[in-house]
Amino acid sequence: MSKKLIIVESPSKAKTIGSYVGKDVLVLSSKGHVRDLATTGVDGLGIDLQNEYLPIYKIIPGKQQLVKELISKSKNKEVYIATDQDREGEAIGWHLAEILKLDPKQANRIVFREITKPAILEAMNHPRPIDQHLVFSQETRRILDRIIGFKLSKLLQSKIKSKSAGRVQSVALKLIVDLEKEIEAFIPETYYEVEACFYHAKADYQIPDKKRLTKEEADQIVLESKNPFKVSKIETKESKRQPKPAFITSTLQQDAINNLSMSASRTMMVAQKLYEGIEIGGEIIGLITYMRTDSNRLAEPFIEETKAFIEKEYGKSYLGKYRVTTKDNAQDAHEAIRPTSIHRTPEMMQSYLGKDEYKLYKRIYDRTVASLMAPAIFDVTKVTFESHGHEYLVTGEVEKFKGFQAIYLENKQKDTILPHYKEGQLIDAKDVLAIEKVTKAPARYSEATLIKDLESLGIGRPSTYASIIQTLKARDYVELVEKRFKPTDQGKLTSEQLDEFFHKIINVEYTSKMETVLDEIAEGKQNGGVLIDQFYKSFIPLVDHAQKHMKKVGPKLTDELCPQCGKPLVIRTSKYGEFIACSGFPKCKYIKKITE
């Protein structure tokens, strides 16, 4: 009989770990969260408002039998909680410990950054107590999200027929809507650039004060720029292009969107599978480290192993220095997303992986190796041509040393080779042209640029970006136009109403500041109860005011009359979608489907 029990969230993770630990250890899965806030109490918040906002937890519907099995199979066993290493995982672990009545001071929590046999066995030798500060941070976040989500969603559903609102979701929507308003208000302007065309090179006119040229100014420059042109200056400098650090969650999502045409949600699904384990030669092995991380730190043993690999495969001159970019709120106990072994090359793994798994693994592997390689070196030559006081510049770039680009290229690029010029040389231009240009409106957000802005503004957590985007789509607040987000009329209305009545909390600065406080709670520097109390007391008056003053939007009128009572027909919405109904409801119950 098994003497030890390990509990993880995922069945596939349980299968992988089970193959490492032997028959004396039973490995079971909780299949994610087993408890959540109840939907009872005042407004169904699941929070005791009279008792310091104490959360009321219930077993998630459908999980009762699973919980009974976990309780039964944990009896007389040494239990280890091995949920994910982030705050969500710590909270799941705490809920499991509560249900199983484990001693909170007992060292029964094990964490690992990769699912490989050595990592799991090492983790079992170093258990620790559950980190209550991480639990408090996640619990505070959950309570805040429940208060905002329930209160705002109910308000918007009753007033303007919007499906939901959320602490982070609504700020992401505001970014999209505000950008759309900027695009709609944009007035294009015509301006001119001047170009001198030489044999084998085109040079751009250098505007002294960097202003935009009018047609008259451009035409005058063209008129005055006469042959011959003089090569007035030649500068050649060495330029280094540094590799980027290994992926974190947000940069992995952006890269996969831009280079692999994978959505953020698809990227995380594939990464989860690579993390939890792939069967290779009869053994299940996790190929990458944990994929929810905002730290790009790499473990020192991995760095040394990879440097030895680079030196062997490419030569000593290709060795570089790893550059870590530390953010104030990064969970630095984590590592970047990297392969668990540098010796499992993408080519070796390809036959074991599906198409998307291989493509994503290769990007992760190549980016990690590149991050430890020397910079690429280029000879950059700038040639200045002069004619009657007007200067034109052409730039050439030639790769001198591949460096990290021997394995990882963000964008394909070609050398720009210039003819051999000499200072003082006189040369004729084939033509000098005034080229008409028109300023362009800002581009709408793509999935990648929205994630980039959410991260840079400190909105939400990288692990939540995929679900935020999915929610905005599912609520019909945005639509994709040429792979970019355009807010729907309902999305605009929702954002505008939230902006009018809740601008104090649904904004970038407030949401970012709240993330900082949640980080401080995780570090034991702030009290979650104080944050909830301050928020609730300032938020409820806003809800009450909106309840009184937000205008109710009626159903949309059609140009048809009800065949039963003669009143106008309107378009209504249910959870199944839109339908046509009589405006005389409930007296007249006539309805019909909307036909294309």
Oligomer: single chain
- Percent of residues in helices comes to 25-40%
Shape category: flat
What's the rounded overall pLDDT mean? 93
Low-pLDDT residue spans: 328-332
Over the alpha carbons, how many angstroms does the gyration radius reach? 30 Å
Say what the CATH topology of the largest domain is: Topoisomerase I, domain 2
Structure description:
By secondary structure, the protein is of the alpha+beta class. The protein has 5 domains: 127 residues, Rossmann fold, CATH 3.40.50.140; 132 residues, Orthogonal Bundle (Topoisomerase I, domain 2), CATH 1.10.460.10; 117 residues, Topoisomerase I, domain 3 (Distorted Sandwich); 123 residues, Orthogonal Bundle (Topoisomerase I, domain 4), CATH 1.10.290; 37 residues, no CATH class. It contains 17 helices and 22 strands. It has a 7-stranded antiparallel sheet with strand order 15-10-13-14-9-8-16, covered by helices on one side. A 4-stranded antiparallel sheet has the order 19-20-21-22, with no helix packed on it. It has a 3-stranded parallel sheet with strand order 2-1-7, sandwiched between helices. Strand 17 and strand 18 form a beta hairpin. Helix 3 packs across helix 5 and helix 9 crosses helix 12. The longest helix is centred in the N-terminal third of the chain and has 29 residues. It is flat. The protein starts with a strand and ends with a strand.
